[in-house]
């Protein structure tokens, strides 16, 4: 049976490489429409939990995984494995691995390259490979394609496409099915197979002329957000000096029915996309002797917001007769965004590091992240979330709100805390001259 026919009849065996915030929703969606799935991940804990029908991501319930693990005709619809020698088994391989930046803000394609080499070692004719990881234009054809076996012809023996993920963890308004999917292929037949695959699970598939166009579309989406967030972050700093409420200004501007989209300031950017993706483009642009000054300026503004927050905190403590050194600072919210359990690239991590370097005594509370590991960027930071109580709030010299989780009772916090510095406008409407913005 040809691959297109397998796809149309939902007989294609789907492999998902990387079972995190991008890969796991894909597993559930392919399973929902009837495909059989093999998930690959190098973390044995994740593999074990998934095979037991459990989820390790807060906003993804384990019920869907448990359902896929139930035997169907003597075989479970979904299985997780750490054995990369099995990459030859699936007809479809979806690559959902990290694409971070290195210490010099340059693309680190280690995960993509290593995954492609593992695929090459197990590859067989008739497979479709789709890269979903965010990356710079040219990755699929310049980096991946040369690593795949020469004995197989792309577009004839196998098919290679790029289709960027568009996950927004914690956003309940959208799901995999309802978010349009951009797809670009190395050849027209590659594109044809990619579109056929995603048409099975997505309401609207958007084909583009090349993998490079698809790669750049993803970076444009996140660069657009990064630049606009940098703009309102800069205006926030100006408004604090001018005595103007930036949030009031944004709400007023939102009333214009055309030509304006609201973005909100904060303590800096976080997550696995927006703080990273624009720098993939700036790096690639250098190859063409082109400087993306606008993007780099936005990146500098957003990257420096944690320093601004700490400086503002120091000024507020000073106004209240306290020095930052040896002050007890309680961070509220470690996640990079509201109501998620992910602290990757979170500005809270940089804020904690800066505070500790300046001699502050730092603790944190986050109802979604019970234990904090600084990971590779902040290896020295290992903390446990402290219980949020009257005693904890009262002993803190300052409460610094970094992430505005819905679980927080802001009225109660304001009634117990000595001093509050709010980076998210979470305490809007709550009276008190002990509440400051940063």
Q: Please, could you describe this protein's structure?
A:
The chain has 438 residues and is an alpha/beta fold. It has 2 domains: 3-209, Rossmann fold (3-Layer(aba) Sandwich), CATH 3.40.50.720; 227-437, 3-Layer(aba) Sandwich (Rossmann fold), CATH 3.40.50. The protein is 38% helix and 15% strand. It is built from 15 helices and 17 strands. The protein has helices spanning 3-8, 23-32, 44-51, 62-69, 110-122, 139-147, 188-199, 211-242, 246-254, 277-286, 293-303, 305-319, 347-357, 390-395, 410-416, and strands spanning 13-17, 36-40, 71-72, 75-76, 78-81, 92-95, 128-131, 159-162, 181-185, 205-207, 328-332, 361-365, 371-373, 382-384, 398-401, 420-422, 435-437. The strands form 4 sheets. It has an 8-stranded mixed β-sheet, with helices on both faces. The protein starts with a helix and ends with a strand. The mean pLDDT is 94.
Put the structure in a nutshell.
The chain has helices spanning 3-8, 23-32, 44-51, 62-69, 110-122, 139-147, 188-199, 211-242, 246-254, 277-286, 293-303, 305-319, 347-357, 390-395, 410-416, and strands spanning 13-17, 36-40, 71-72, 75-76, 78-81, 92-95, 128-131, 159-162, 181-185, 205-207, 328-332, 361-365, 371-373, 382-384, 398-401, 420-422, 435-437. It is α/β, with parallel strands linked by helices and 438 residues long.
